[in-house]
Specification:
Layout (H helix, E strand, L loop, with lengths): L5 H11 L6 H7 L3 H6 L7 H22 L5 H11 L2 H10 L10 H5 L6 H19 L1 H22 L5 H9 L7 E9 L6 E8 L2 E8 L2 H19 L2
Antiparallel strand pairs: 1-2, 2-3
Helix pairs in contact: 2-8, 4-5, 4-8, 4-9, 6-8, 8-9, 10-11
Amino acid sequence: MITLSQEKLRRLHQKLGVDGLPDALLQRAVTHSSATGEAPGMANYERLEFLGDAVLQMVVTRRLYDQFASKPEGWMTWMRQMLVSEEALSVVGRQLELPSFTVLGVGPARDGAAQRDSIIADQVEAILAVIYLSLGLDAADAFIWPRLVPLMERHEREGDMRDPKSRLQEELQRHGPVKIAYQLLSREGKPPQEVFVSAVTLDGKTLATGQGRSKQASEKEAAKAALQTVLKERR
């Protein structure tokens, strides 16, 4: 099991830049359930994540309502969906270097689980809950909103930030059901330097391939490549 040393805990405090957060809660916010399975009595971030999700929804909803008075409900709903997505939160978490602070069980640590978007996003929500519990909603807002604004601006500038697999499925199923599948083509190297290559197929025909540091990442890259082709063909 990977543990969080006092030095790492100090650096995490520095990265977050928020004074007054209890060490015990902050350590809990970056502790995955795989670690608690190996150390009975240690708390993981799941309950904090549950609370943090609600705090995030509140912060984003209030900000969109207050700052974009001329925007319709549909736009606010869509923008909120993007800003609270795993995709957006994982970007925030990587900027905070959360993978380097993640406490994992031995197996997941060996497999590079700290780099998974889902785990990084969960930790951001858990940290948001710690800030809310310790300092209140305004402090949680001050922490997360400035980090989400650049993503919102990027969304407005470049387009949809949703998971590319979901977007690809949406695009391909516009005119009826189709069979979309992902196939792992190769896996080379040793953790954490493994490289996965996957293909996405439509009704058995390969649309695109992609590579990444995990199977999930390689599938996303394949979906991105396929999505670019599909959207280009429709212009």
